């Protein structure tokens, strides 16, 4: 009786899925139209994926640099340096939740209310920085700087172009409304910025005055009620009650200098030369 031995055969490896469909959206985003029109045999080459990865990383780096530059943040302290124990009242949980940037995705606003020197600017700048790191466009500007810049435009066309500087970013932080009084022209310009961003882009606004006192800031302006209404619609309010932290730091530095001076040895007495 003859027996035959059947050898197990290894099945051929499964064919790798075609890489072209996955690559084409990336090529389109990078506007690499030459490769986009290349045959699939070219797109299957390993160097194509390497090229795409290099190009994407470089463009992401340059995009981040550009957005940080356009944010106009200047120097600022990180939120890790914020002294949460200093304010008498502050909603830390709400502030930390705001750094998830959900309000930016919803085109909602944030109002930071409190007296001078309690950290409103610090929080606003850190929110702008976080938004940029998460891929958003953002800009930080002082209220007076923005309104002076807009008021200085000498034509309707120039004003429209300059307004885009404050209406196009996904997040706009307007700092220190309420410290100065503005005329009706400035109130109208702020109203224009808020109206153009309404329900389309987020505003972080810091102020030392409750909205009930904004009529003192924009005296005789007819648009104040509507301006406030559009700001507070779909907004979060963070109220900070505290003494000025900058004043606290100044007093601490003064006390430190006084202690340092008190530890210095007195100057040696001068002796008159012998006759």
CATH-level-4 superfamily name of the domain at 79-248: P-loop containing nucleotide triphosphate hydrolases
Strand order, main sheet: write it out: 2-3-4-1-5
Structural class: alpha/beta
- What integer value in Å does the Rg equal? 30 Å
Write the element-wise H/E pattern from the N-terminal end onward.
HHHHHHEHEHHEHEHHEH
CATH fold node name of the domain at 79-248: Rossmann fold
Give the class-level CATH name of the domain at 79-248. Answer: Alpha Beta
Give me the CATH architecture of the domain at 79-248, please.
3-Layer(aba) Sandwich
What is the general shape?
globular
The share of residues in helices is 40-55%
Weakly predicted, low-confidence segments: 11-17
Quick one: biggest sheet?
5 strands, parallel
Number of alpha- plus pi-helical segments: 13
Number of strands: 5
Head-to-tail CA distance between termini:
141 Å
Which whole number gives the mean pLDDT?
89
Oligomer: single chain
> How much beta, percentage-wise?
5-15%
Compact description:
With 275 residues, this protein is α/β, with parallel strands linked by helices. The protein has helices at residues 20-30, 33-36, 40-43, 46-71, 92-98, 102-105, 120-133, 143-151, 156-167, 184-197, 214-217, 224-232, 245-263; strands at residues 109-113, 138-142, 171-177, 202-207, 235-239.
Give a description of the structure.
A five-stranded parallel β-sheet has the order 2-3-4-1-5. It is 50% helix and 10% strand. Strand 3 (171-177), helix 10 (184-197) and strand 4 (202-207) form a beta-alpha-beta unit. The protein contains 13 helices and five strands. Helix 1 (20-30) packs parallel to helix 4 (46-71). The radius of gyration is 30 Å and the shape is globular. It is α/β, with parallel strands linked by helices and 275 residues long. The model is unreliable at 11-17 (pLDDT under 50). The chain has helices at 20-30, 33-36, 40-43, 46-71, 92-98, 102-105, 120-133, 143-151, 156-167, 184-197, 214-217, 224-232, 245-263, and strands at 109-113, 138-142, 171-177, 202-207, 235-239. The protein has a domain at 79-248: P-loop containing nucleotide triphosphate hydrolases (Rossmann fold, 3-Layer(aba) Sandwich).
């Amino acid at each position: 009786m003859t027996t035959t031995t059947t050898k197990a055969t290894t099945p051929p490896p499964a064919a790798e899925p075609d890489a072209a469909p996955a690559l084409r959206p990336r090529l389109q985003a990078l506007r690499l139209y030459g490769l986009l029109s290349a045959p699939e045999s070219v797109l299957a080459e390993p160097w194509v994926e390497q090229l795409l990865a290099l190009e994407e990383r470089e463009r992401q780096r340059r995009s981040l640099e550009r957005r940080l530059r356009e944010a106009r943040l200047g120097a600022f302290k990180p939120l890790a340096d914020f002294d949460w124990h200093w304010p008498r009242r502050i909603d830390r949980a709400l502030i930390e939740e705001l750094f998830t940037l959900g309000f930016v995705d919803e085109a909602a606003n944030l109002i930071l209310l409190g007296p001078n020197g309690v950290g409103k600017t610090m929080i606003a700048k850190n929110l702008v920085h976080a938004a940029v790191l998460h891929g958003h466009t953002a800009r930080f500007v002082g209220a007076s700087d923005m309104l002076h810049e807009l008021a200085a435009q000498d034509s309707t066309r120039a004003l429209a172009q300059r307004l885009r500087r404050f209406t196009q970013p996904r997040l706009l932080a307007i700092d220190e409304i309420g410290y100065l009084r503005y005329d009706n022209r400035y109130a109208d310009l702020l109203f224009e910025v808020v109206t153009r961003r309404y329900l389309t882009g987020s505003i972080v606004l810091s102020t030392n005055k409750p909205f009930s006192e904004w009529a003192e800031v924009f005296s005789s302006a007819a648009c104040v009620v509507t301006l406030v209404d559009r700001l507070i619609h779909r907004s979060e309010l963070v109220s900070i009650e505290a003494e000025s932290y900058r004043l606290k730091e100044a007093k601490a530095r003064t006390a430190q200098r006084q202690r340092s001076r008190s530890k210095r040895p007195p100057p040696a007495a001068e002796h008159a030369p012998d006759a």
